[in-house]
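ESCALATION

Customer reports they have been waiting on this structure for their group meeting. Please prioritize. Original submission:
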Amino acid sequence: MTRCVTRSAARVAALVALGTATGGCMDFGGYDEPVELSTHVDDWRDQIIYQLLVDRFADGDLGNDFMVDRTAPGRWHGGDWAGVESQLDYLSGLGVTALWISPLYKNVETDAGVDGYHGYWPQDFTAPNEHFGDVVALRRMVDAAHQHGILVIIDVVTNHVGQLFYYDINLNGQPDEQVRGSGDKSPVVHINEYDPDFDPRGIQAYTSLGEAGPAPVIFNWDPATNHMPPWPEALQHAAAYNKRGRTLDFEDPDQLLHGDFPGGLKDLDTTRCDVKDAMVDAYARWVELSDVDGFRIDTIKHVEREFWRYFAQKVRQRLAAQGKERFFMFGEAFDGRPELVGAYTQTDLPSADQLERENTCVHDGLALTGDQLDGVFHFPQYYTVVRDVLQQGLSTDRIEGLWSARSLYYGATPTQLGTGIAPVKTLVNFLDNHDVPRFLFQSDRPALHQALTFLLTEDGIPCVYYGTEQELAGGNDPANREDLWETGYDTSKPTYQVIARLAALRKAYLALRRGDQTVTWASNRTGDEPDAGIFAFERGGGDAGGAYALVVLNTNRDHPSSPVFGGVPMHVGAPGGTTLVDVWSTAQPQPAYTVAADGALAITVPPLGQAILVPAADVVPGI
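Update from on-call: job pushed to the front of the queue and completed.
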């Protein structure tokens, strides 16, 4: 009699990744079969993204809970892909239509007393992180998400690998902490061979006789902590790295692009053809293995734009040829300057000589164009609007100033084989994330609910950080990476209900998803003035056709405000005589306002209040 056996997670992952048949009596319910890629999205502007850290969201498989220590925020806590799958109904109830999950490849396990639970310390770009499951578990989760109408976005790192080698500065063949100098006639200098300070020449060897040329690069071999030579093989050579040491000044272009990320994350030379190809192949392969729908790309400002031209175009071409279209790639530049952030979305065609050099990496005959990414994480808005206005109560004219400059900085033309939408229309907006304190760490629930109203009604794609719906309030990393299961996934929580209702309104009214955006009132006043704190904008036209919505916020904490000053009222684009109903209000009947013949509209909004107005003829009951 033949006895069926269960394969280990690692073995199954390896077999699936290699395309090896899993024949015999083993049955994985079809999830071991090749994936047929499909397009699961019509318009990315219709989506609501939910960012989660897999390790902290839900623990669905106790079998992969190794090295777990829930007493420390910087350790593995046990969340996995099975856990994500188990909570899809919870996410659907919230109104989520896209999941952004943390990186999925094999990571450095632990380093200097902190674990790699977050996924940003890559070691093997081709193997799954066994803490989260195997390829079968990933496929099952993605398939279940698609059945729930939820897209899946994976986090992508191309700038660096984890702390996988050291610079043998003193040429003794082992990693050392060195102290040079007496402090009397020579300065005391501390040198960590894993993370030495930046040197534009490259890290130099040094002995008692002086400098001795470039320091050798020595890869670690420690399976227990997974400090191992990286994979794919192209990354196992010193030439694949810039080797200039730790970035000290992020305003220095050389350090920004070529320095190791603080903490010993080794900077890849992303101008090399073999590095470009390794990244394209590794990440396109993950899509081919799982049918995910997009990439959120980490640390884009630390990588040359020539890499983004190559990576984005070659990934799109490879996936489109297999039926995966409208694949969304948006990047993270942790920076408040729109001119810098937006540069990665523009058509950026270099000089003829530069383009000729870049095309030497092309093997498929499809020459590079100036296309880059489809969108970016909207960090300029985080600083100017979320922090300054919605949390600190500064003047709302800051929002108008930021918005009015969008067309100057962000791409106005859709990328070839991309989302089909201009990047300026697919900025990913957010209130907080895993790299900044949670909104409630620095504010309160009324301000959060107003900020969520802003987030889910403005132009672009809203992104909600996991746990916001449960009113988590952690400070800086890792305090902002709490275990969601501690909340019990409470769907009665007030903020869960607010997000769910805003999501329903966004779905019901096309203008809130696809309409063009026009500011109708912004104020530079924050005191006792009648319009202090008011910000109003209308959405309509464009891809929303004749649909119309008007959003009015009062960011002032102290008194009701109205969009009127010096006797001059707000004028809107809705025709005179139009009755606008506040569909956000829970009063019955909901308040209604009539547009005057000259387009003026009078409305008063309570402190930290908001109104979402749509024409009475368009009101969808029951939301």
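Sent to customer with the following note: The CA atoms of residues 170 and 207 lie 6 Å apart.
Escalation resolved.
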